[in-house]
Amino acid sequence: MAAIKILPDIYSxxxxxxxxxxxxxxxxxxxxxSSYNAYLIIDEKITLIDTVQEAFAQELINNIKEIIPLxxxxxxxxxxxxxxxxxxxPEIMALCPKAKILGTAKCQEGLYKHYYKNWDFQVxxxxxxxxxxxxxxxxxxxxxxxxxDSMFTYCPQDALLMPNDAFGQHFAxxxxxxxxxxxxVLMEESKKYYANILWPxxxxxxxxxxxxQKLNIPIKIIAPSHGVIWRNDPAKIxxxxxxWAKGQTENKVVVVYETMWGSTEKxxxxxxxxxxxCGTEVKLYDIAQSDRTEVITQMLTAKGFIFGSSTxxxxxxxxxxxxxxIVKGLKPKARKVGFFGSYGWAGGATKEMQELLKDSAxxxxxxxxxxxxxxxxxxxxxxxxxxxxxxxxxx
Length: 395
Ligand code: FEO
Known about the structure:
About 35% of the residues lie in helices and about 25% in strands. The protein is an alpha/beta fold and about 400 residues long. It folds into two domains: about 5-245, Ribonuclease Z/Hydroxyacylglutathione hydrolase-like (Metallo-beta-lactamase, Chain A, 4-Layer Sandwich); about 250-395, Flavodoxin domain (Rossmann fold). Helix 1 links the parallel strand 8 (about 45-50) and strand 9 (about 75). The longest helix has 18 residues, at about 375-395. Bound molecules: MU-OXO-diiron. MU-OXO-diiron binds near residues 80, 84, 146, 165 and 226.
């Protein structure tokens, strides 16, 4: 995509990655692609905000060249060192040797550990200001949103916040603004991004939003480092983040299972019927067939989770084990959980699933349900009751 003017003298010069389907080492499936956004401010001092992934360095360079020769860049603001935003920095720095990089102290340390270059670097802290001419930039350190080096950059003259990963979406689009895309897709991708990357950081995010709100700075535009720019309704995504960070949930249950010969699946389907009979929304996923990123997105706002597995070697099956490791890492809080599964001669799956989540802030509200071999009609009726009882306990 070519450079696009987003405000007078401010350009979006980043790139759209239409084909990326896995992100963060295959922990996140990006079925709608992504973008690596970078912004160029033309003023007495010319400033580039972030770069792009290394593979797209030439496209970024071409976009900047449409506007100014690269050697004219005075400052490069590095809001975040992760490779999708700093990967093109070595190529850019080779073409604009007089440029100074600005970022947090952790950014300086992290950039060196990525690229081993002694670039001219200025450490900035919250409330530090950088005069560009007509415009000024100020900085807000945002450690652990989502890396220790993370920072937001704010331009008061345009009420423009550039928070890097925060408020982003893995969403490739030829449109650059929120009002130009389907709103359901936009919020779905925003929620997916929050659930799969930011979920464990809710307390930090809430505190940072409150801190920024106390600064009483107007925010008319949020230009994140992935996806589209929020210019129509930035409050929409801020309010969504507040709700997700507070752990606000719906009367909804997500049932995730893995089955060996179909018995655990029979149990799962009856449990779902029991939940639905109470008027509670329920989603069912065979994790061996499902997109984990999508399942986690559904779990973000669900009040209850039920996990099922057949027993194999006194343990759960491998796909549900891998999934529960991810769930454990997301540190869900104040959710109700239950476990079920079928076994042959010796059980073990439900106990192992419980064990995996024992240090998580989730509450098991119903005893495990396990049946030998294939469940008979009476046992299936117990599965229905298990689901109904679990759903009633959520109300
Ligand atoms: Fe988009 Fe944390 O990198």
